[in-house]
TrEMBL record:
The organism's taxonomic lineage, starting at the top: Eukaryota, Fungi, Dikarya, Basidiomycota, Agaricomycotina
Domain Enoyl reductase (ER): 16-342
Domain of life of the organism encoding this protein: Eukaryota
Entry's transmembrane regions: none
PANTHER family attached to this UniProt entry: PTHR45033, ZINC-TYPE ALCOHOL DEHYDROGENASE-LIKE PROTEIN C1773.06C (PTHR45033:SF2)
Name of the featured protein: Enoyl reductase (ER) domain-containing protein
Length: 344
């Protein structure tokens, strides 16, 4: 097939708000020997895209930054030395895949941000792509690289989740909904928190046994203890960060696991004794989770294939490519459950 000579892509001349997003057309280079050219079919958005839109990203950003981190698409050309991919392959990509578990590169990924994937065509290093599960659409597959992989890493690593465990999952965003689905499919009991009764109804439909509205029940850790007979939960998917960590440590059982995934509540000051002493006295494992590895992806793909309906991605809304600004504005409202996707 004839390769494209150019691609339309969205970019931020200056980060600061989603209305600053502009569309431009730039040349497409042929892939180098170890690279792959991918035609984008769908992009799922992350909360990090909102942080960039607000101008609050803590690390350096390149000029005319292309947003978006998670893509599903089709290989249309491969470099001379690429053996693992052929044209027509359905793939997922993330600009930091293949790098997260290399120590120096992982630190760089945490501090900086390469151009993203909100573009019609994109070059990837061959090791930055993974195969799409065959039963998923491109829109569904685009939700996997960050949200699903992070949730799987949290539940399957360290002390892996087992049937009969009780898991507290904060919120109903992308990572949280995948964690809920994976936990239910694993035979765990799920308690879900949210500020919205409507969102909690969705969590209940997905299998959560107990739900807590943290606006009407601000001392939600006490309700968790009541529901567990004073024992606490085996595991917590912590997305609030320092805003909720003290309560999470009160709600976790002795020897439990708190998987720290996000800081949606902001980076508030917290007294070190409020963290250190509960971890010591209750022998709690507090583990940070940053996406996942190729091995995690392989394990997750196998798990998803064995639990097709229970793990089918929850997509709140799909936007057209030209409506990318509207998609980011919708995500920023935080009224969604699951994922927001842009179809290209």
């Amino acid at each position: 097939m004839t390769l494209p000579s150019s691609t339309r892509q969205f970019c931020y001349p200056e980060p600061g708000s989603s209305p600053n997003l502009v569309i431009r057309e730039v040349p497409v280079a042929a892939p180098k020997s170890n690279e792959v050219l991918v035609r984008t079919h769908a992009v799922s958005l992350q909360f990090g895209d909102i942080i960039i839109a607000r101008g609050g990203y803590p690390g350096p950003l390149p000029p005319n930054l292309v947003p978006g981190s998670d893509l599903a698409g089709e290989v249309i050309a491969v470099g001379a030395d690429v053996t693992q991919w052929r044209t027509g392959a359905r793939v997922c990509g993330n600009p930091t895949f293949g790098k997260l578990y290399e120590l120096g590169a992982a630190a760089g990924a945490a501090l900086g941000r390469p151009d993203g994937v909100l573009t019609e065509y994109r070059i990837f290093p061959a090791d930055s792509l993974v195969s799409v599960p065959g039963h998923l659409s491109y829109e569904e597959a685009s939700t996997l690289p960050s949200s699903a992989l992070t949730a799987y890493n949290a539940l399957a690593s360290g002390q892996p989740l087992k049937a009969g465990d009780t898991v507290l999952i904060q919120g109903t965003g992308g990572v949280s909904i995948f964690a809920l689905q994976f936990a239910i499919a694993s035979g765990a009991t799920v308690i879900c928190t949210s500020s919205s009764d409507a969102k909690l109804k969705v969590a209940t439909k997905l299998g959560a046994k107990y739900v807590i509205n943290y606006k009407t029940t601000p001392n939600w850790e006490q309700e968790v203890l009541r529901l567990t007979g004073g024992v606490g939960v085996d595991r917590i998917i912590e997305v609030g960060g320092t805003a909720t960590l003290k309560q999470s440590l009160a709600a976790i059982k002795r020897g439990g696991n708190v998987d720290l995934i996000g800081v949606l509540g902001g980076m508030r000051d917290i007294s070190p004794p409020d963290i250190v002493m509960p971890c010591i006295v209750k022998e709690v494992t507090l583990r940070g989770v940053w996406s996942g590895s190729a091995a995690h992806w392989a394990g997750m793909s196998k798990f998803i294939a064995a639990n097709v309906e229970a793990t089918r991605p929850v997509i709140d809304r799909v936007f057209d490519f030209e409506a990318a600004r509207e998609a980011l504005a919708y995500l920023e409202l935080q009224g969604h459950v699951g994922k927001v996707v842009i179809k290209i």
